[in-house]
Amino acid sequence: MTADTPHSAPAQTSLTEPDFLRVLKGARLASPPVWFMRQAGRYLPEYRALRATAPDFISFCLNPDMAAEATLQPMRRFPFSAAIVFADILLIPEALGQKVWFEAGEGPKLGELPDISVLEANVPFAADRLSAVGETLSRVRAKLEPNRALIGFAGAPWTVLTYMIERGSSNREHARSYAWRNPQHVDQLLAILVESTAQYLAMQVKAGAQALQIFESWAEGLSESQFRRLVIAPHQALVSRLVELGVSVPVIGFPRGGGGLSLLYAQSVEVQAVGLDTSTPLQLGRDIQKLRTIQGALDPLALRAGGPELDAEVERLLDAWGQGPYIFNLGHGILPDTPMAHVEQVLARVTGRGV
């Protein structure tokens, strides 16, 4: 069941297309499509067993057999509308020549940031060095049912750059300070990441990705001027470059932590959908929905907690945004200790809307 979107006449869609893609093109469904960020991961026992067979996390991501299996595991258990390829946003710095590894209990670690000349020299080869991700997508698409979509992704240039500058995880204060002190250098680095990411995402589409998500995981804490320079401008450049490369699949931009600036993002970047994080006010979501399809923003902590409060929160989001083009999702990734029964609880409630 579809109706016109509130923001424009919807693009022509086919009833044979996956619901997920129809909504990205502007359709409104009585029961919105649903997928969860990090839906493939440590909350699944089969994932933990598979991960234990890999020597390290990067090797795991770049092994098409393992990565395809990890991508498909949640699709076998749950009626998700879309699969997202199992990979990591830090594969790009690795392909550009910066050492990346993961330490148990500490997360990602990165080596020294290479010189601009080294990074630039590696841009033409980055996508080829990540061809294993393309192979993973091809294998998943061959096994995934036609009514379920396949999503490719990459980290946004600013988010990836924060890790490259800080050489690991933190509150990003050092990276934000660095951007104020070294604007020209940061702009050069962002340009390198825009081009390498565009080539990488174009390769994913050729391999079978039917939609793309740009994860701006560290949009929070930025002033408006820095948000425009570090988030909006690189996203605009990335989307434009994808068009130049012949990419026509829909793109979801996720400026997590952008707060009220998320509306400015929706007004400025030609993505087909905007991902909303946990803190998004309902009215802000409605305002963005007048411009774009929206996605999100269930609190992963509510999912972990379960119970009647989880049901109430799901209903609150559906009541607020379900009348427009909406993809049900979390406001951030699923937590590793989330009970699978709670995932089933949410899916039953969301998919039951259209019955």
CATH class: Alpha Beta
Question: Into which percent range does the helicity of residues fall?
Answer: 40-55%
Shape: globular
Lateral strand order in the biggest sheet: 1-4-5-6-7-8-9
Return the domain count: 1
**Quaternary structure annotation:** single chain
Rounded to the nearest angstrom, the radius of gyration is 19 Å
Describe the structure.
It contains 16 helices and 9 strands. It has 355 residues and is an alpha/beta fold. The chain has a 7-stranded parallel beta sheet. Strands 2-3 form a two-stranded antiparallel sheet. Helix 7 runs parallel beside helix 10 and helix 10 (183-207) packs parallel to helix 11 (224-244). The radius of gyration is 19 Å and the shape is globular. Mean pLDDT is 94; it is low at 1-6.
What is the gist of this entry?
This protein has helices at 19-24, 45-51, 57-61, 64-77, 91-95, 116-129, 131-143, 157-166, 173-181, 183-207, 224-244, 261-268, 282-289, 300-305, 307-321, 340-351, and strands spanning 82-84, 100-103, 107-110, 149-155, 211-216, 251-255, 273-275, 293-295, 326-327. It has 355 residues and is α/β, with parallel strands linked by helices.
Structure keywords:
7-stranded parallel sheet; alpha/beta; TIM Barrel
Topology:
Blueprint: H1 19-24, H2 45-51, H3 57-61, H4 64-77, E1 82-84, H5 91-95, E2 100-103, E3 107-110, H6 116-129, H7 131-143, E4 149-155, H8 157-166, H9 173-181, H10 183-207, E5 211-216, H11 224-244, E6 251-255, H12 261-268, E7 273-275, H13 282-289, E8 293-295, H14 300-305, H15 307-321, E9 326-327, H16 340-351
Parallel strand pairs: 1-4, 4-5, 5-6, 6-7, 7-8, 8-9
Antiparallel strand pairs: 2-3
Helix pairs in contact: 2-4, 4-7, 6-10, 7-10, 8-9, 8-10, 10-11, 12-13, 15-16
